[in-house]
């Protein structure tokens, strides 16, 4: 499991714009770099990030080579109802990680 | 020809006096101060600083590896600020990673970890992070004085095909540019740190190897006594700067 750092407010007012910040540990190996022995290192990147809010996507991103290691993504959305936020990173070599956080809307 | 006490010479003396009186604030300046505002913000925000991922990893390792049987995280406060230290058992100086290795191997009977592997870096960054914000207060043990002098000699010694000493860059040319990079004063108050060029966390010894290879000299072997001597001198040179671990550098 890769380590992640998430900033998600636990509570929000209805209609409030909430800011989410995510950081995940990942080498984001581009697939173009030669390693110490001169052979090209195979590509190993996160290809897709999705944030679901009660199972509906509120933010999605495609990632590509040349994005730095440990991708940092920040985005906002409008809090409308209490529920669960799911953060999903998927990539090469079957990489897949999901983190969830509860959000209570008053 | 100028008379020695008139013309440019006198102007230069006046300038030196002016610098002495009004000049740049004395005291060491952390590499943090000369970074771009974006990088400074990245270092200061624990949710954007990738080094914090390794601190979290180290916190888990500290539990998993049984360090908590003898130490609490709070007891690690201030430790990194006074390393390297003098180790009576080996009758020589020891750095933080060396101390952690000693605890693992001699007190816990575990197999050695690679010095710059993920786990050792994580443990070191977690321990050093407990001192973040505390001023460097080099070890007062009188036996460290000799080690610091050795380190200073290494710092002033010219090396490599480029025939440059550490001091020629970090004392004489700090603040100027070397190709695209700004030459910092070369203080070691943020290690282990996250370097963008490495795209990862790295130790002080890795940084020093980079500088040695940069002047086309043969770096010392990993873990060599010379690194610890250099580190002891660097700590004295940076006395009073606060520990930034995990710092971020370009």
TrEMBL record, chain A:
Residues 9-100 form the Sulphur oxidation protein SoxZ domain. It comes from the Bacteria. NCBIfam families: SoxZ_true (TIGR04490). This is Thiosulfate oxidation carrier complex protein SoxZ. The lineage of its organism: Bacteria, Pseudomonadati, Pseudomonadota, Alphaproteobacteria, Acetobacterales.
UniProtKB/TrEMBL annotation, chain B:
It catalyses: S-sulfanyl-L-cysteinyl-[SoxY protein] + thiosulfate + 2 Fe(III)-[cytochrome c] = S-(2-sulfodisulfanyl)-L-cysteinyl-[SoxY protein] + 2 Fe(II)-[cytochrome c] + 2 H(+); L-cysteinyl-[SoxY protein] + thiosulfate + 2 Fe(III)-[cytochrome c] = S-sulfosulfanyl-L-cysteinyl-[SoxY protein] + 2 Fe(II)-[cytochrome c] + 2 H(+). SUPFAM superfamilies: Cytochrome c. GO terms for biological process: sulfur oxidation. The active site is at residue 211. Keywords: Electron transport, Heme, Iron, Metal-binding, Periplasm, Signal, Transferase, Transport. The keyword Heme applies. Residues 63-136, 150-242 form the Cytochrome c domain. Its EC number is 2.8.5.2. GO terms for molecular function: electron transfer activity; heme binding; metal ion binding; oxidoreductase activity, acting on a sulfur group of donors, cytochrome as acceptor; transferase activity. Substrate binds at residue 207. It is found in: Periplasm. The keyword DNA-binding does not apply. Heme c 2 binds at residues 166, 169-170, 211. Heme c 1 binds at residues 67, 70-71, 103. Heterodimer of SoxA and SoxX. NCBIfam families: thiosulf_SoxA. This is L-cysteine S-thiosulfotransferase subunit SoxA. It comes from Roseicella aerolata. The gene is soxA.
